[in-house]
Amino acid sequence: MLCTKGIPTTEDLATRIPPEERRRKGPVVMIECFQKIPCNPCYTACKHGAIQKFEDINDLPSVNFDNCNGCGLCISKCPGLAIFVIDETYSETQATVSLPFEFLPLPHEGEEVDLLDRSGKKVGKGKVLKVRNGKYEDRTPVITVAVPKELSMVVRNIKVGGDVR
Ligand code: SF4
Ligand code: SF4
């Protein structure tokens, strides 16, 4: 299930991007959920008070970015696959993106994969740093991939094993 039917507009995304000052401090969540549906597992997954309590089950999640430590524990709990953690402090030239990935085959750590944007278009190559696929993830593995820093707000999916055209 996808949270949104189409691809979010730049205006939509602008309401979700963590402030630059917060991004400079380390990993932080970005929630790309734009459709009001009765759903709140993101809120119950966050033990750090970063995702604000829903007044109404149909509310869109609201984030206190200063409370987010970038743990990523909310990523696999979102049925809409709408939650990402971005770390723009990874290195001088690279950021990391942690994303939900429900396709097979799964990549392995160290593997080079295609980097895709929100529309599924290939935008580059990146290296998988971490694959989380335990009991907690419950069949929604979480992949952390290194990406060129300028693509931290662009890469939202990967393709394993082969080029995307
Ligand atoms: S990444 Fe961790 S701290 Fe941040 S919103 Fe998700 S669960 Fe909460
Ligand atoms: S769990 Fe996902 S789809 Fe549901 S409200 Fe939170 S971000 Fe939106």
Key traits:
seven-stranded antiparallel β-sheet, 7 strands, 4Fe4S_Fe_S_CS, binds iron/sulfur cluster, metal ion binding
3D architecture notes:
This protein has one domain (10-159). It contains three helices and seven strands, in the order ααβαββββββ. The two termini are 24 Å apart. The protein has helices at 10-14, 20-23, 41-45; strands at residues 28-31, 83-87, 94-100, 112-116, 122-132, 142-148, 157-159. The model has no long low-confidence stretch (mean pLDDT 94). The longest helix has 5 residues, at 10-14. It is globular. The chain is mostly beta strands and 165 residues long. It has a seven-stranded antiparallel beta sheet, with no helix packed on it. The chain binds iron/sulfur cluster (2 copies). One iron/sulfur cluster binds at residues 3, 31, 33, 39-42, 61, 78-80, 82-83. Residues 59-88 form the 4Fe-4S ferredoxin-type domain. It holds the Pfam family Fer4_7.
Topology record:
Blueprint: H1 10-14, H2 20-23, E1 28-31, H3 41-45, E2 83-87, E3 94-100, E4 112-116, E5 122-132, E6 142-148, E7 157-159
Antiparallel strand pairs: 1-2, 2-3, 3-6, 4-5, 4-7, 5-6
The chain binds iron/sulfur cluster (2 copies).
Short description:
By secondary structure, the protein is mainly beta.
Given the C-alpha coordinates, what overall shape results?
Answer: globular
Count of folded domains = 1
Count of strand segments: 7
Give a quick account of the main beta sheet: strands, pairing sense, barrel closure.
7 strands, antiparallel
Sheet/helix structural class: mainly beta
Please trace the helix and strand order, writing H or E for each element: HHEHEEEEEE
Number of helices: 3
The helix fraction, in percent, is under 10%
- Are there runs of 5+ residues with pLDDT below 50, and where? none
Can you list the strand order of the major beta sheet? 1-2-3-6-5-4-7
The percent range for strand residues is 25-35%
Q: Which radius of gyration do the C-alpha atoms yield?
A: 15 Å
Please state the average pLDDT score: 94
State the end-to-end distance. 24 Å
Bound molecules: iron/sulfur cluster
